[in-house]
Specification:
It is a single chain. This protein is 18% helix and 21% strand. The chain has 180 residues and is an alpha/beta fold. The chain has an eight-stranded mixed β-sheet with strand order 3-4-2-1-5-6-7-8. Strands 9-10 form a two-stranded antiparallel ribbon. The chain starts with 14 loop residues before the first strand and ends with a strand.
Length: 180
């Protein structure tokens, strides 16, 4: 029987971008890919973890080729965190679409997972519930990363990192060019 995480390579410090969405599309998918590639360009060892029903792998995230992801179960991702793996929630999801009904993300956040907060709409949707609807207690959010300077109004302790769209990536190769 293979080791529980034989599908995940081990080595030095790894930045795990957690993609909690079940589907693709919208800004969160492209943001995750751009952040993944920007961190790679900076020399980081980075991987994309998707919360899935069973362990699996993918070679591309939506239309973005050469963007591999690793599917991990809720229990696997919790075990990775207990082992000291660093996690960053790059693409959140509504609690109704998360396999365990939304309890997993607050547990990971309490365990030290940082959030990338894109805009205030993530906390307020059309019915008053955004993609962070499972976070009744916003005080558990520690040291979030914001990609728009205006978000510092809502999270004073946030680290501002410019949106990685500043660099355009060719979806078919790892070449890049600066531009908007």
């Amino acid at each position: 029987m293979p080791a529980p995480f034989s599908h995940i390579r081990r080595g030095g410090l790894v930045i795990n971008l957690v993609y909690a969405r079940r589907d693709y599309g919208g800004g969160s998918t492209s943001f995750t890919v751009h952040l993944y590639r920007a961190l790679q360009m900076a020399g980081a060892d980075v991987r994309i973890l998707r919360i899935t029903d069973k362990p699996k792998r993918g070679k591309s995230l939506a239309k973005y080729s050469d963007t591999p992801w690793i599917g991990v179960t809720a229990s696997d991702i919790l075990q990775l965190q207990r082992q000291g793996e660093k996690m960053l929630l790059a693409a959140p999801e509504h609690s109704s679409k998360i396999p365990d009904g939304g309890g997993l993300l607050p547990e990971l956040i309490r365990g030290g997972m940082r959030l990338v907060i894109h805009d205030p709409n993530e906390f307020m949707g059309s019915r008053g519930k955004g993609v962070y609807d499972h976070l009744d207690d916003k005080s558990i959010i520690q040291n979030p990363i914001c990609i728009r300077p205006s978000m510092k109004r809502h999270f004073k302790d946030a680290t501002f990192i410019p949106h990685p769209y500043v660099t355009k990536f060719n979806a078919m190769a790892d070449k890049h060019s600066v531009g908007c």
